[in-house]
Design goal:
The complex is a heterodimer of chains A (115) and B (120). Chain A has 115 residues and is mainly beta. Chain A contains no helices and twelve strands. In chain A, strands 2, 5, 6, 10, 11 and 12 form a six-stranded mixed sheet that branches. Chain A has a four-stranded antiparallel sheet with strand order 3-9-8-7, with no helix packed on it. Chain A is globular, with a radius of gyration of 14 Å. Chain A starts with a strand and ends with a strand. Chain B is built from no helices and eleven strands. In chain B, the strands form two sheets. In chain B, strands 2, 4, 5, 6, 9, 10 and 11 form a seven-stranded mixed sheet that branches. A four-stranded antiparallel sheet of chain B has the order 1-3-8-7, with no helix packed on it. Chain B is globular. The chains are: A mainly beta (115), B mainly beta (120). The interface between A and B is medium-sized, with 27 and 27 residues.
Chain lengths: 115, 120
């Protein structure tokens, strides 16, 4: 069965500092990978996705992620964090098979930003 | 254009009552999904619709949970005889249909704001 691990439950960074959120996945085929962000009381917003091709993908709000098949990882990065980036971040893998398309999510990483 | 909408935004009910949660997907999206987000379990898949049929109901936690979709659009998630462990945020998402054979599915899922269900 597919699974996603986000080893960091909570990360605190200073505004302007760089950020890396870790994500490891387990999936038996070529993965379709996603990063979503959720602000308090809001739904999930897609930051970026990886389907195939270039292993470094660019997303919205200045985020990028790198797919590393050898490490089964899809880490999210941002060179300079803004206070408005404080939110919870979810990594997900799409399971497609047997007539289904469902996202399996990690437990999330809560990001706090110090002014 | 309009995104995925859900109603109500908040629902408080008493244990044992039935509740209905509604989802309006993005116009033209033939695929619709329900997920549940709770403190203990995180984000969990419940059910997937393609058109009005549900090829995958594997995430529904018990037979108290059911969902339907009519006209290839609006979906309703019904929870019968609610229990306290049903308290969670229920999220709906929609996406375009899968692509033609040999083409990867256009499966970016767009999420609604969710319905927060509290069972007292």
């Amino acid at each position: 069965a597919q699974s996603v691990t986000q080893p960091d439950i909570h990360i605190t960074v200073s505004e302007g500092a760089s950020l890396e959120l870790r994500c490891n996945y387990s999936y038996g085929a070529t993965p379709y990978l996603f990063w979503y962000v959720q602000s308090p009381g809001q739904g999930l917003q897609l930051l970026l996705k990886y389907f195939s091709g270039d292993t470094l993908v660019q997303g919205i709000k200045g985020f990028e992620a790198e797919f590393k098949r050898s490490q089964s990882s899809f880490n999210l990065r941002k060179p300079s964090v803004h206070w408005s980036d404080a939110a919870e971040y979810f990594c997900a893998v799409l399971y497609s098979g047997a007539g289904s398309y469902q996202l399996t999510f990690g437990k999330g990483t809560k990001l706090s930003v110090i002014p | 254009g309009a995104g995925v909408s859900q109603s109500p935004s908040n629902k408080v009910t008493e244990k044992g009552k039935d509740v209905e949660l509604r989802c309006d997907p993005i116009s033209g999206h033939t695929a619709l999904y329900w997920y549940r987000q709770s403190l203990g379990q995180g984000l969990e898949f419940l059910i997937y619709f393609q058109g009005n049929s549900a090829p995958d109901k594997s995430g529904l936690p018990s037979d108290r949970f059911s969902a339907e979709r009519t006209g290839g659009s609006v979906s309703t998630l019904t929870i019968q005889r609610t229990q306290q462990e049903d308290s969670a945020v229920y999220l709906c998402a929609s996406s375009l249909a899968r692509g033609l054979a040999g083409v990867r599915p256009a499966n970016e899922q767009f999420f609604g704001p969710g319905t927060r269900l509290t069972v007292l």
